[in-house]
Design goal:
4-stranded antiparallel β-sheet; 8 strands; single chain; Alpha-Beta Plaits; 2 domains; alpha+beta; about 200 residues; 5 helices
Length: about 200
């Protein structure tokens, strides 16, 4: 059997932006050494994914990783985005302007998941992403990039039996999730919230 054609470069690139968009004084050093740091993080996690990357740092401080294997999408590495972000900030401290969570360069869209019973969700808001990320991946094989409550007040949410959640996904995955999915043995309805294009 023939291998599928290579993916477009944007599909296997992911990046982390700084909270303040400015050039990092060690940009050249980061570009030189972060591919090795990335490979170390993946080996440490016993990942079977390809380990070779090239890295660039643009004049706004964004660190970009491009996988050498043109058949492996950036989303395959989504499980390691948090670990890579932590390691990047630890290796190259940036004070009050840290790097934010790595994300694919693909356009993203936000979807609203309606009426999820509160009993299905973690009590700690900080655990929401981990819970949703794993459950949606198990249910339909889609990686989400973020998850949050439209209503940020936990006390007012607890007065209800169910709540809505906003998740961010790569634009090509939106149609896979819409109009509903089997989540927590439940079938919540999803609808687009709004779209945005995020580039390096």
């Amino acid at each position: 059997m023939k291998r599928p054609p290579p993916l477009l470069q944007a599909v296997h690139r992911f990046f982390a932006s700084r909270t303040t968009l400015e050039l990092h004084p060690e940009a050249v050093k980061i570009a030189a050494h972060f591919p090795d740091i990335t490979a170390y993080v993946l080996r440490e996690a016993s990942s079977s994914l390809p380990l070779f990357f090239t890295s660039t740092v643009n004049n706004r401080g964004s660190v970009s990783l491009l996988g050498a294997d043109l058949h492996t999408p950036a989303l395959a590495y989504a499980t390691y985005f948090a670990s890579l972000t932590t390691r990047l900030n630890k290796a190259f401290p940036v004070g009050n302007s840290p790097w934010e969570l790595f994300k694919p360069t693909l356009n993203e869209t936000q979807l609203l998941i309606h009426s999820i019973p509160l009993d299905f969700l973690p009590r700690n808001d900080n655990q929401l992403f981990l819970s949703l990320h794993q459950s949606i991946r198990n249910a339909i094989g889609v990686f989400i990039h973020s998850a949050c409550y439209p209503n940020p007040d936990p006390e007012s949410r607890r007065q209800k039996q169910s709540t809505s959640i906003v998740v961010t996904v790569a634009l090509p995955n939106a149609d896979t999730l819409l109009p509903s999915i089997n989540l927590f043995s439940w079938n919540p309805i999803l609808e687009p919230m709004f779209s945005s294009s995020k580039s390096l």
